[in-house]
């Protein structure tokens, strides 16, 4: 059975992992006959957002602890991710990617990635093992794969411009499809960068995961 490592960034679209994307991806992985294990950095979130009114809540939450809600406790610190134990990597989106796994939401193309997350992701790139990034998660790719990496965040012009500024090569992509950088064995799909409902998000995610498992 092929094993997929999944890196989460909290729980909730505005300050963590986009939950629909994560659950759809985990379901698709199982439906393709593979297994998954989740990881997250053991750090405090950038901030906590009230998902009803969008306001900042003045409390402190831990990314690993919050991510465990999605994984039903089946999760480990990202520092324990051993490349030899997994055939592929998947990173769902959500603002947690741009606030917790990196500071892209604050600094755009001048962003930095959490060192533990960066090391884990780079280990898959260096081993030439396939990896998939959903929604806003492809903003991590230029710093992981270097100049020329092809990926999509859908069609948002500002995010695409930042991706290109960082050295990536952005490709426009509809919600029901994915982009494959064959040289790097790298897959991306817009998911909720374009999706207006969970069914639309599922169309591209399912296709991407099917190809990811095939490449693994």
TrEMBL record:
PANTHER family: ES1 PROTEIN HOMOLOG, MITOCHONDRIAL, GLYOXALASE ELBB. The keyword Lyase applies. It comes from Photobacterium aquimaris. NCBIfam families: PRK11780.1. It catalyses: glyoxal + H2O = glycolate + H(+). Displays glyoxalase activity, catalyzing the conversion of glyoxal to glycolate. InterPro entries: Class_I_gatase-like, ElbB. This is Glyoxalase. Keywords: Lyase. GO terms for molecular function: lyase activity. Belongs to the peptidase C56 family.
């Amino acid at each position: 059975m092929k094993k997929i490592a999944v890196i989460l960034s909290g729980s909730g679209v505005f300050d963590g992992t986009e939950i629909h994307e994560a659950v759809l991806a985990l379901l698709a992985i199982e439906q393709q006959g593979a297994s998954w294990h989740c990881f997250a950095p053991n750090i405090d979130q950038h901030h906590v957002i009230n998902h009803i009114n969008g306001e900042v809540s003045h409390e402190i939450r831990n990314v690993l602890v919050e991510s465990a809600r999605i994984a039903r406790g089946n999760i480990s610190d990202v520092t324990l991710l051993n490349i030899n134990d997994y055939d592929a990597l998947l990173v769902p989106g959500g603002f947690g990617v741009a606030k917790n796994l990196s500071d892209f939401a604050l600094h755009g193309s001048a962003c930095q990635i959490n060192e533990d997350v960066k090391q884990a992701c780079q280990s898959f790139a260096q081993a030439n093992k396939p990896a998939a990034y959903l929604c806003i998660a492809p903003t991590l790719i230029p710093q992981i794969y270097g100049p020329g990496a092809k990926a999509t965040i859908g069609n948002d012009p500002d995010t695409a411009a930042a991706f290109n500024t960082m050295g990536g090569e952005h490709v426009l992509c509809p919600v029901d499809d994915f982009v494959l950088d064959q040289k790097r064995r790298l897959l991306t799909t817009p998911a909720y960068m374009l999706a207006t409902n969970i069914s639309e998000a599922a169309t591209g995610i399912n296709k991407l995961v099917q190809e990811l498992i095939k490449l693994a």
